[in-house]
Amino acid sequence: MTAMEQLPTDTEVHLYTVGEYAALGETEYRTELQEGIIVMSPSPKLRHMKGLLALARQIEDQLPEGLGVVAEIDVDLEFDEPDEPGTVRQPDLIVGDEAAFERAEDQGKLIRAADVLLAVEFVSPGSRRMDNRVKRAEYADAGIPNYWIIDVNKGLSLLACELTRDSGYVDSGPIIGSTFTTTKPFPMTVDLTKLVRRQAAE
What we know:
This protein is of the alpha+beta class. It is about 20% helix and about 30% strand.
């Protein structure tokens, strides 16, 4: 029996805790947990995946010791008690405490938001509101210090959001199609032009 076959039918109502969601294991679909409800999203398109891999390579080359970068992995936003319906998101990319990531894997648990220093989402045609509003608010509430929203569909841009004590995430506007240099969560430079390589036929 696959994990997806264990999900309830339309006539059943069950709100999942984070532990129950984690116990489902891998599925053939990309899923997240939203206040106890399992939601599915379409698989990323080619340009999305190429940009994601290119960014991961650039970040990995500049990582300080003790930090790791992971793509498309579940993160427990830790909004709720263990026995209550939970919220789990799957950012396109995260950077954080590598030792904590390994411990979570060894213990069969999900990565905690508290161990994430940077979450990245690549905007898809159907995810613009989710990435810019819903996840921006959720990641701020979860205490993730830095959140990047990258768009490789409408031009090429990176919006870097930094968590503040009183105002949630703040940003200074998108970086458009150039080089992005930052000290948060560690000193690094990202060449945005390498996130998308359009062929002449496109």
